[in-house]
Amino acid sequence: MLDEVIGEWGLPSRPVVADAGYGDATEFRLGLTERGLTYALAVSPTATAHPAEAAPVTPAWKGTGRPPQPRYPDPPQDLKSLAMAAGRSAGRYVPWRHGSRKTPGNPTASMRSRFLALRIRPANRNIPRDSDGSLPECWLLAEWPPGAPEPTDYWLSTLPADTKLRHLVRLAKIRWRIEHDYRELKDGLGLDHFEGRSRLGWHRHVTLTAVAQAICTQLRRTPQAPAQA
User: Fold this and answer.
1) Do β-strands 77-78 and 48-51 pair in parallel, antiparallel, or remain unpaired?
2) How far is CA 38 from CA 31, 47, 84, in A?
3) From the record, what ranges are coiled-coil (predicted)?
4) Of 74, 109, 139, 215, which sees the most CB atoms within 10 A?
């Protein structure tokens, strides 16, 4: 699907976001990287990685058998352990969208939480290594809500190392917009109201609802013209 959108439709490349069902699949992440696509994918806290500063070493060769290859001296840790080792104080509060329920303590109705971002090296036997045996770096983003004893959500991202935390959070949390759009498609525009039996009819129905949503989105983003005097 991504190949079709970018190669055949000619749409510009954008970072890919997805839930842990995709993020936990190493092959999917590698496929995005091979296509030159960056991503911010939710992952399970049980996924493993090395800290970014970890470096592989080559054991001494005794002159018999196959020469040893570079490898990390310490085993990888799960993402939860890496985040817990960094500690709550490593995070910062970041607003990630504006809500609709304003309160005296939150007049802007902003949705905010504590997030921490760490540079890590995901560990998996299928991930290609550099010539020195090192694994590629990426971001680990973890959400640690106030009052929670540990982080609740985790993401891996291949955005550049100089990416600001606010941008990482915005991208990781943009899935709420996707879910909102899907709900609008179903409930407001009738995506799930199709009762035909042909594939052609279903294709036309989906196309019309998608066009209707695109028009609604454009209207929301277009500043209202001043009223006529």
Assistant:
1) antiparallel
2) 10, 19, 26
3) none
4) 139
What span, in angstroms and rounded, lies between the C-alpha atoms of 50 and 72?
9
**CA dist., res. 124 & res. 135, Å (int):** 9
* 29, amino acid identity: R
Amino acid at 112: R
Say if residues 134 and 56 touch (Cβ distance below 8 Å): yes
Q: Which two tokens stand for residue 196?
A: 């035909």
Per-residue pLDDT of the chain (229 residues; tens, 9 = 90+): 777 777 777 777 788 999 999 999 999 999 999 999 999 999 999 999 999 999 999 888 877 778 888 889 999 999 999 999 999 999 999 987 765 555 555 555 578 899 999 999 999 888 999 988 899 999 999 999 988 999 999 999 999 999 999 999 999 998 777 777 778 888 888 888 888 888 888 888 888 888 888 888 888 777 765 555 4
* Distance from C-alpha of 218 to C-alpha of 205, rounded to nearest angstrom: 20
Measured in Å, how far apart are the chain's first and last C-alpha atoms? 49
d(CA 129, CA 8): 31
Rounded to a whole number of angstroms, the CA Rg of the chain reads 23
CA angle in degrees (0–180, nearest 5) for 39-44-50: 75
Phi, psi of 96 (to 5 degrees): -115, -10
SS3 content of the chain, % helix, strand, coil (to 5): 35, 20, 45
